[in-house]
Amino acid sequence: MQLFPAIRGIGTADGEEAKKAAIEPVIEGLAYLEEEFIKSSKGKNFFGGDKIGYLDIAFGSFLGWVRVTEKMNSVKLIDESKTPNLFKWAEKFCADNSVKDVIPDTDKLSEFAKVLMAKLRNPQN
Asked: Burial, 78: exposed, middle or buried (Cβ in 10 Å; 0-12, 13-18, 19+)?
């Protein structure tokens, strides 16, 4: 499963049943990612250990969009009760000095997403 195209599918789903169907594979993918985080981090803060590494940057670059998807669709994808290690990782990643000033603000990114979605739905404008 490709996690990030699946996340985009939540936003493009038409109707509540389609949205629920789109959310399920994302939840499954995040559960798998939770397991892989536990294996690779070996109890440390990040995928590769004590410091942010390539996997953290790769996944972390999508965190803004994950949060926008959560906000715009009233759903919790990275949930403290279902994926506690990913939840803690996301908090630590976003708070890290090397990231905190460059991670996009969820509200601003949500506004951009609304404009982007409107243009995708009506390409003539």
From this structure: buried
pTM above 0.90, yes or no: no
| CA 125 to the chain's CA centroid | 29
| Distance, CA of 3 to CA of 33 (rounded, Å) | 9
- Alpha carbon distance 69, 8 (integer Å): 8
CB 10 within 8 A of CB 66: no
DSSP code string of 33-85: HHHHHHHHHTTSSBTTBSS--HHHHHHHTTHHHHHHHHHHHT--SS-TTTSHH
> From CA 74, how far away is CA 19, in angstroms rounded?
11
> Which pLDDT tens digit goes with each residue over 19-57?
999 999 999 999 999 999 999 999 999 998 999 999 999
What is the distance between the alpha carbons of residues 23 and 78, in angstroms, rounded to a whole number? 12
C-alpha 62/C-alpha 66 separation (Å) is 6
